[in-house]
Amino acid sequence: xxxxxxxxxxxxxxxxxxxxxxxxxxxxxxxxxxxxxxxxxxxxxxxxxxxxxxxxxxxxxxxxxxxxxxxxxxxxxxxxxxxxxxxxxxxxxxxxxxxxxxxxxxxxxxxxxxxxxxxxxxxx
Length: 124
Fold this sequence. Notes:
69% of the residues lie in helices and 8% in strands. The chain is mainly alpha-helical. Strands 1-2 form a two-stranded antiparallel sheet.
């Protein structure tokens, strides 16, 4: 079921979200200072391609907090808005609600990506 959900996800909007993450990652990688941020964007593009069966756990820390503040103004708002709008469009129909909820999860991740750990969840 997870595989089917991820395939449908990619066809119905997951690819758009992943491309947005990749574009922002490339823009951050232009400078040496932004390289760690760009690499994080590339890692998080993978969750945009297959979010079903993955959960996000947030860890704290002063460095993560400072990076998230910089990220919020220099790329996070745009990515969050894209994912939020697509999520709202999916939630209009009952069938699209699971996909909309995944877009909301990625929108939250778009606002604070640093300190986030993506874990695979195995349901019994």
